[in-house]
Design a protein that fits this description.
Chain A: This is Metal ABC transporter ATP-binding protein. The structure holds 3 protein chains of 3 kinds. Chain B is mainly α. Chain B is built from 13 helices and no strands. Chain B has a single domain (4-258), classed as ABC transporter involved in vitamin B12 uptake, BtuC. By secondary structure, chain C is mainly α. Chain C has one domain: ABC transporter involved in vitamin B12 uptake, BtuC (Orthogonal Bundle). Classes of the chains: A alpha/beta, B mainly alpha, C mainly alpha. Chains in contact: A-B, A-C, B-C.
């Protein structure tokens, strides 16, 4: 089923925690240079899926095939303001953070770090403490940390949460460039798909543990999402934005849908 | 002050300060002040237990420190960490009062264990402390980057294959050994002061992790030297100067960071 | 009658030091256990422990001046509570660090004061009695002031019970309801300093954490309602203290001529109660997963 050119193949993946099925029979595959949005509300299993792909979480059944190294940007890291650690140190730790021994100065490493800082546009604040940086700047540093080992697949867990509109656009542009220019496959989770609409080749839409996957325009449709949720869902497109709305009066909406946020967000 | 019988004391104190400064930086960065305070305090009855058993005080201290490390780690799995630390401290100290009263430890001895006393140290006592010191520094040097990454974010470290649980336990064990060897000199109550004061200052004075480590070690050595000298001159206890200097260092570093943000 | 005598050695209740010990021990245990529940919920065990350690400086001053240890403990503990709140830090790492620094400075002071005690009064016992307590040595005249301090602590707790509970659960929730979180925090530390003062008199400055955290941690394991947690914590504290006094009194006959320290028995009983509570709390959880 999986061909050699795929960067990631997830087949019939199920994950259960004691007393709770988190993912049911999720399948999709990603090609080099594709940007894929992993969309779903809070608690829909986005983080679990990413952690299972990384091997940090065991699957109940199904399989994950990876082709090449993986880089990961975890969900909201609150950097300590008092850590004596510059942005460039964090990027450097991406290269050799798991190595033993004191970090000896090396020209090769320095060059790689510089190049990576430039690639994410972080030269200007490379020597500041990470704790002092803004949310968008920290996200750039984390992406550089994940990318410095030149992975073929980059996983990002809610990198756009709590960023202002401008920073969201910057990060989305950055991810798009990595995919287009270097053929990196990008899997990015978000509870709101709108900022990603312009760059997203594919979508994995999670709801109640199951996934609808495919090209964005194939998945984000009233019939598909209604089937996924098991209730009627309206998908409305206005001015290039997508709104996903649960139909019916508030008291008729089942809890699972009530939790689902209505996607109303600016595309800058 | 530098009489030949004092030389061994100076050497011992310097070894301890180097270790405390290095371990202390991570104690501060990881927010483990309570554990660093509880371990030596809980370990000090180990000295009384060692007296009862007729073995060297150092091994009694390390044994109790080890109990504390295992206890905190185990309890913390089902309990908030600070509560786990407090419970373990309480259990060890309770045991300690019994050992102290049974071993007939005279009050002056208790005072020395709690607050430290740099009396004549023999050459033979230096060797085990030196060996342990080298062990700790080597372990810290080897694990520097993984520990730093884990301190920055356990999640991020996990993606590099660094287990959060193992890093936590490993470092706590280092703190346990470091406090046990420092205890007879600076005292159970003030070992942690020597760890957190210089380290807290160091992290405010630089943005670079390796420099912070070096600075923390230097400040700790300075603190100990000044304290011993002042104690010698004034005949007041060393612990008083260590505690006060550590607080002073912290206050100065905090103010300097408030008024002058590092580039 | 002989069985009664086996448990309560002859003269237990008739002994005046025992009566005093039971009264002040009970007061200390109840006040500490009650405020301990909030301290555990707020994640401020370190602050609680630090206050009691620092109060040892007060105990040493009292020794030096020849006044009652109660006032020494109390004065310094209240001062330290103010200092901790002044630092006013919300991030828990930074709060712990400042607590540690204040604690270090306080203990340094204790070292100096005890050193002076030993120098001037040539009684090496000061360190032991300040640090490890001497409940049987508390004079009966201290009963009234100590009960007064206890009453004050309980009264303050009763007055701020609901806001205190709310801020302990979630400060944001509380401030949304108009609770002044920082004032409640300061009041909590003040009550805490009263409690550790009482405990320091009973089982010593460095051991008062046992009465503060132990019973509360055990109660929180079992109880699912705040009121019940408070009740249980108080009960556990009382059991440990009474048991400790009783066993210490009995221990006179175990090793002739030498009593075992009360503090040892109290901390051991608290540890046992905690372990029992953990086992008790574990039971229903095991059943629930078996059903699932």
């Amino acid at each position: 089923m999986s061909t050699l050119t795929e960067t990631l193949n997830v087949s019939a993946l199920s994950v259960a925690f004691p007393g709770r099925q988190v993912l049911k029979d999720v399948s999709f595959s990603l090609m080099p240079g594709e940007v894929c949005g992993l969309i779903g509300s809070n608690g829909s299993g986005k983080t679990t899926l990413l952690r299972t792909i990384l091997g940090l979480q065991a699957a109940t059944s199904g399989a994950v095939h990876l082709n090449g190294a993986v880089g990961y940007v975890p969900q909201k890291i609150a950097f300590d303001m008092d850590m004596p650690l510059r942005a460039r140190d964090v990027v450097g730790l991406g290269l050799d953070g798991n190595r033993f021994g004191l970090p000896l100065p090396s020209l090769g490493k320095r060059r790689k770090v510089e190049a990576m800082l430039r690639a994410v546009g972080a030269e200007a604040f490379a020597d500041q403490r990470v704790g002092d940086l803004s949310g968008g700047q920290q996200q750039r540093v984390l992406i550089a940390h994940a990318m410095i080992r030149r992975p073929r697949l980059l996983l990002l867990d809610e990198p756009l949460a709590n960023l202002d509109v401008r920073a969201v656009a910057d990060i989305v542009g950055l991810l798009h460039r990595f995919a287009r220019d270097e053929g990196v496959t990008v899997l990015v989770s978000a509870h709101d798909m709108n900022p990603l609409l312009g760059v997203m080749d594919r979508i994995v839409y999670l709801a109640q543990g199951r996934a609808a996957t495919g090209k964005t325009e194939e998945v984000v449709r009233t019939e598909v999402l209604s089937r996924l949720y098991g209730h009627h869902i309206d998908v409305i497109r206005v001015h290039g934005r997508v709104l996903v709305i649960a139909a019916g009066a508030a008291d008729e909406i089942p809890i699972a849908i009530e939790k689902h946020p209505v996607h109303v967000c600016e595309i800058p | 002050m530098f009489a030949s019988y004092m030389i061994n004391g100076w050497i011992m104190a310097t070894i301890i300060a180097v270790v405390a400064g290095a371990v202390g930086l991570f104690v501060v960065l990881r927010g483990m002040s309570f554990a660093a305070h509880a371990l030596p305090l809980g370990a000090f009855p180990g000295a009384a237990a060692a007296n009862l058993l007729g073995i060297s005080e150092l091994w009694g201290l390390i044994g109790f420190s080890g109990l504390g490390v295992i206890g905190i780690t185990q309890l913390a799995q089902r309990q908030r960490r600070d509560v786990a630390t407090a419970l373990m401290l309480m259990a060890l100290l309770g045991l300690g009062t019994l050992f102290l009263s049974l071993s007939g430890h005279y009050a002056q001895g208790v005072y020395a264990l709690l607050f430290g006393q740099l009396v004549s140290v023999s050459r033979a006592e230096i060797w085990p402390v030196l060996a342990l010191g080298i062990l700790i520094i080597a372990a810290l040097g080897l694990g520097f980057r993984p520990l730093l990454l884990n301190t920055l974010s356990p999640d991020l470290a996990a993606t590099h294959g660094i287990s959060a649980g193992r890093a936590d336990f490993g470092f706590l064990a280092l703190v346990g050994i470091a406090t046990a060897m420092a205890l007879p000199v600076v005292g159970a109550l003030l070992v942690f002061s020597l760890m957190i004061g210089p380290a807290a200052a160091a992290r405010s004075l630089t943005n670079r992790p390796a420099t912070a480590l070096l600075l923390s070690v230097c400040l700790a050595v300075l603190t100990v030297w000044v304290s011993i000298a002042a104690a010698y001159i004034s005949d007041w206890p060393t612990g008083f100067f260590v505690g006060t200097l550590a607080a002073l260092l912290f206050a100065v570093a905090r103010l300097s960071r408030r008024f002058h943000r590092l580039p | 009658m002989s069985f009664f005598n086996l448990i309560f050695a002859p003269g237990f209740f008739a002994s005046a030091p025992v009566q005093t010990a039971l009264v002040i021990g009970s007061a200390a245990a109840i006040v500490s256990a009650l405020i301990g529940v909030f301290t555990v919920l707020r994640g401020q065990s370190f602050a609680g422990h630090a206050l009691s350690d620092i109060s040892s400086a007060g105990g040493s001053v009292a020794f030096l001046l020849g006044i009652s240890a109660l006032w020494g403990f109390l004065g310094v503990a209240v001062l330290a509570a103010g200092a901790l709140e002044l630092a006013g830090l919300r991030r828990s790492k930074e709060r712990d660090l400042v607590t540690g620094i204040v604690l270090g400075a306080g203990l340094g002071l204790t070292a100096l004061l005890l050193h002076l005690d030993i120098g001037t009064r040539s009684s090496g016992g000061a360190a032991i009695s300040v640090m490890f307590g001497s409940i049987f040595a508390v004079p009966a005249s201290m009963i009234v002031p100590m009960l007064g301090v206890s009453g004050l602590a309980v009264l303050m707790m009763g007055l701020i019970y609901r806001p205190l509970l709310l801020t302990s659960l979630d400060p944001n929730l509380a401030s949304a309801q108009g609770v002044r979180v920082s004032s409640i925090g300061l009041l909590h530390l003040l009550i805490l300093s009263l409690a550790v003062t009482l405990s320091a008199m009973t089982i010593g400055a460095i051991l008062s954490t046992a009465l503060l955290i132990g019973p509360a941690a055990a109660a929180v394991q079992i109880a699912h309602r705040p009121g019940r947690a408070l009740l249980l914590a108080g009960l556990f504290g009382l059991i440990a203290t009474w048991g400790g006094v009783l066993l210490a009194y009995d221990s006179y006959t175990w090793t002739p001529g030498q009593a075992w320290p009360v503090s040892f028995f109290i901390t051991s009983l608290v540890s046992l109660i905690y372990v029992a509570a953990r086992l008790w709390a574990k039971r229903p959880v095991a059943r629930r997963t078996a059903e699932a």
